[in-house]
Amino acid sequence: MNTKATSIYGSVTKAMILAAGLGTRLKPWTNRHPKALAIVNGKSLLQRNVEYLQQHGVKDIIVNVHHFAQELIEAINYNHGWGSNISISDERDAVLETGGGLKKAEPYLKDAANFILMNADVLTDMPLSDMIEDHLINKPLATLATTNRKTSRYFLFNDANQLSGWTNVEKGDTKISRPAAHYEKKAFSGIHIISNRLFPTLQQDGKFSIVDAYLTLSATENIRSFDHSQSHFIDVGKPENIVKAEAIFK
């Protein structure tokens, strides 16, 4: 375990892995299976991310399920959580997206002062313990893992590293939440460290995006970036990226 995860600033011991999505970009695999069980070099994405969290001292995890939910639950049970304590947030009635899924899991997470939220279909060797320490030192509402890679959608941060907006460069759509003289574009990696102070601020109910919530809250709240551009990172949401991931994550 990386001891930086338990520094003088405290620790983060709980996480949520978002695994409920339909995985439409990962067809044909997701026609018959949940995306979180897609295999990279003999291990599922879910197993790899559970083990990634373990490396940084996080073994209490909640996983939300919807698409082929029973297959996911059976894999977790059969493998005894790959050595972690895994609970299930059942969204079989209706998939709630990132914000709604997080809000549904509030009873599990609210007693943790800070916790990790991550997508099931990303792989990285980012130094998560460094990100945790940065979050605990600066005490924002949330810290978002980012890189300088090229994409179509970016978060915008001001010179104080505060979330200030969002842009889709392909469509030309931009939302500014905090006026600034200069904005830096950063690509989001789908990994967050969040203070439990977030829960009382979430006014939305049902299905909603956590990104929309962040953009609303960032007008007055401090939401920071943690840049890990020097790390390996891959969004494994598309079939061709399975091959790329297998070249990096052995």
- Percent in helix: 10-25%
Alpha-beta content class: alpha/beta
Distance between the termini: 19 Å
CATH topology: Spore Coat Polysaccharide Biosynthesis Protein SpsA, Chain A
CATH class: Alpha Beta
Beta-strand proportion: 25-35%
**Morphology call:** globular
- The helix tally amounts to 7
Account of the protein in words:
24% of the residues lie in helices and 30% in strands. The chain is an alpha/beta fold and 250 residues long. The protein has a single domain (11-248), classed as Spore Coat Polysaccharide Biosynthesis Protein SpsA, Chain A (Alpha-Beta Complex). A hairpin with a 2-residue loop joins strand 1 and strand 2.
Descriptors for this entry?
250 residues; alpha/beta; Spore Coat Polysaccharide Biosynthesis Protein SpsA, Chain A; 10-stranded mixed sheet; two-stranded antiparallel ribbon; 16 strands
Give a short summary of the structure.
This protein has 250 residues and is of the alpha/beta class. The chain is 24% helix and 30% strand. It is built from 7 helices and 16 strands.
Structural topology:
Elements: E1 6-7, E2 10-11, E3 14-18, E4 39-40, E5 43-44, H1 45-54, E6 60-65, H2 69-78, E7 85-90, H3 97-104, H4 106-109, E8 114-119, E9 122-124, H5 128-138, E10 142-147, E11 153-157, E12 163-168, E13 173-176, E14 184-195, H6 210-217, E15 223-227, E16 233-235, H7 239-248
Parallel strand pairs: 3-6, 3-8, 6-7, 10-15
Antiparallel strand pairs: 1-2, 4-5, 8-14, 9-16, 10-14, 11-12, 11-14, 12-13
Helix pairs in contact: 3-6
